[in-house]
Amino acid sequence: MPSIPTTRTATEPRPRVTTGGTTYADIVTAMTSDGPRSYVLRTYGCQMNEHDSERIAGLLEADGMVLADSEDDADVVVLNTCCIRENADNKLYGNLGHLKPWKDAREGRQIVVSGCLAQKDRELVATKAKHVDVVMGTHNVHRAAELLREATSSDVAVTEILDEAVIDDHALFPSALPARREKSYNAWVTIQIGCDNNCAFCIVPAVRGVEISRPYADIVGEVEQLARNGVTEVTLLGQNVNSYGRDLQLAARQAGDADAKLRPLFSGLLRDVGAVEGIRRVRYTSPHPKDMRPDTFAAMAETSAVCEHLHYPLQSGSDRVLALMHRGYTAERYLERLAQGRLAVPDLAVSTDIIVGFPGERDVDFEHTLEVAAAAEYDYAYMFLFSPRPGTEAADMEADFVDPAVAGERFQRLRLVVERSALRKHEARVGRTEEVLVEGPSKRNPDVLSGRTRQNKLVHFTPPFPIRTGSYATVDVTRGAPHFLEGTFVELLAEPTHTIRIPVAAL
Ligand code: SF4
Prior knowledge:
By secondary structure, the protein is α/β, with parallel strands linked by helices. The protein is built from 15 helices and 20 strands. Iron/sulfur cluster is lined by residues 195, 197-199, 202, 204-205, 239-240, 288.
């Protein structure tokens, strides 16, 4: 195993607990005699973070802890942070400030800060909030229980940040660790971590490291295991799924493997994962437009389990801004590939991410974004007003920051364009019969069920009899709104086969 650059706090050497197989819960139970310790986990940010949280929870539970109903009951609070969102650091330190009286109210309580912000801020977290017990980075998920255990006998925060993933350790992939999955009928499966791109606005390469693909057989094996446990929908997760396997091929070549020119491809994964018995739906996120390949569209079209939905991040419709962002494609090429996708995959729904007001964006650049958004006819879009993330190239482009009032006005214009196409797309589905994976009662009305179509559209319908979460049903679409569909129940297609409904953690 290569030696891994690591940051530990200046407090080393810290007292280590020699447990000899004793679990964390054993240690603290002995300290408190109050039964198993409990935790709550608050997750911020993207699906990758949510998936990491499932693994942290799984590791804590494997170590004898239980999920608490609320913070009031909990002995441990884990904040799994994200530095993508605006003011993430202020929010974290604000939350930590509120947790100080919580911690002081009961002896033995502990606070863990994990995730991207911990990776970026490192020792600063424990310096600014001295009551934190553990600070761990994005490459340390597998060490969660061990670090918490170490902290029980340390007077100062245990800070451990691995600077890069442990390449030959399968535990580096969150999917390879025990998990406490929030839902038992669908699951995220990590296929790749890190990113080799350098988008000017993005902190991911700095906090998640270089791209590392998970071994092909491990991914398929995990999906087979999930299917045996009753999971019917999987989402393959990576920062740039189309480049899956590039590093595996390189490593194989370096090891002298003559077949290494046969790179394991993402399209192959789609086909093999889609062929696993019991898996009815396969989704993935996110592809990078510059690496989108025809074979991926072909695999989508030819693998019945792969859903007709493509999340295809545009970011900007201006070639000039795309170049400033280092995105590696032009608007024309983006639209060409999108057209190929729509040709190959009938009834393909398309969503996107767009940043409005990137430094240097002029009116004419934004007009191009409007044109591309109109031409792309998105089903929905995640639109963001640019805000600088410390540590990124764009944060240093201060002289070119766009006036917030101008950016705000542009945002509203873009929203109208996207909502128009979304509504058109949704209204076009009225009268169709859609397959829906039931996600549970609607947030607004417990008598109404909500679910997702294969195109990832939210559908609300009233069931004529109780229908379990995780079931598949067909619904006649009766109304299309910009953000959802309404319909009437037709038929129950399949009931979930998982036997345990794992309650959702209150976050
Ligand atoms: S592709 Fe760009 S936006 Fe996506 S994770 Fe990599 S650097 Fe960030």
